[in-house]
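Run log // design_07
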């Protein structure tokens, strides 16, 4: 068997002291033999710095003012020396054994440059939520294609890894985007290579009051719609994207109502109105 590749994980951080230690430990506990872990903090004022200092022997970290998540991540990508790179936000976590699986997969499949697996949704307490959304994404993950990606974002960011050479080819994240920058990046990567998908859970995506997904769902969906307009030349596919957005918004509202009823949601997501969806048509 070929040697396992070096993997670089980048975590952007800002005032996520309630979760960042769990995130860091989920990376370090993988015990992956060729790991480079970079945490770039935007100048947190909570207990984040104490957590980073605690793990200073096993991570590379800096804390300084930045221009947001995309800026921090691009700094990390430029610093990365691993053959495989990924980013894990400071409230998400990896499944046990995820990095070993990823390292072996890339080692045994040198033709694969970009890979994504399954991802669970969890709340602030670490309890699994929004299973219908998870199963829906898993369904489309099996039928992965560039056309499907133009209609809906089925790629779970915490469970996605790619070879660093792709960063050299397509550049970094769009620093003008503060939401859905990962979707924009997937669309760009898709112009250079084919996404390989695997039926294995690799990560947990946390939804809570302080997260973008928990507090600004409307901005997330609006950004994805605007991003699609950059890359999708087909009126039919754009119409399908708008219709899918309307459908998924309705589903999210039902799930949110259920979570609030069960006491799982810390704060309701912002309402998503028809003004951001635009007129649903095929023209």
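design_07 sequence
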């Amino acid at each position: 068997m070929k040697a396992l590749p070096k993997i670089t994980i980048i975590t952007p951080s800002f005032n996520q002291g309630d979760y960042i230690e769990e995130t860091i430990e989920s990376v370090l506990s993988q015990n992956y033999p060729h790991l480079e872990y970079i945490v770039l903090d935007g100048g947190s004022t909570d207990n984040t710095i104490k957590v980073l200092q605690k793990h200073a022997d096993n991570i590379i970290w800096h804390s300084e003012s930045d221009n947001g998540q995309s800026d921090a991540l691009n700094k990390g990508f430029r610093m990365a020396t691993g053959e495989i790179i990924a980013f894990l936000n400071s409230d998400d976590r990896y499944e046990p054994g995820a990095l070993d699986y990823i390292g072996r997969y890339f080692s045994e499949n040198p033709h694969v440059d970009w890979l994504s697996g399954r991802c669970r949704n969890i709340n602030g307490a670490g309890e699994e939520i929004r299973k219908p959304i998870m199963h829906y994404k898993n369904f489309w993950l099996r039928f992965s294609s560039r056309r499907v990606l133009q209609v809906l974002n089925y790629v779970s960011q915490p469970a996605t890894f790619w070879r660093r050479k792709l960063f050299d080819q397509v550049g970094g994240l769009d620093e003008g985007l503060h939401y859905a920058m990962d979707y924009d990046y997937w669309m760009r990567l898709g112009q250079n290579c084919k996404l390989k998908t695997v039926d294995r859970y690799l990560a947990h995506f946390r939804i809570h009051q302080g997260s973008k997904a928990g507090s600004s769902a409307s901005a997330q969906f609006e950004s994805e719609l605007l991003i699609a307009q950059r890359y999708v030349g087909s009126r039919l596919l754009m119409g399908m994207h708008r219709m899918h957005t309307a459908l998924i918004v309705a589903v999210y509202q039902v799930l949110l109502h259920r979570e609030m009823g069960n006491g799982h949601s810390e704060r309701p997501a912002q309402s998503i109105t028809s003004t951001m969806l635009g007129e649903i048509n095929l023209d």
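DSSP finds twelve helices and nine strands in the chain.
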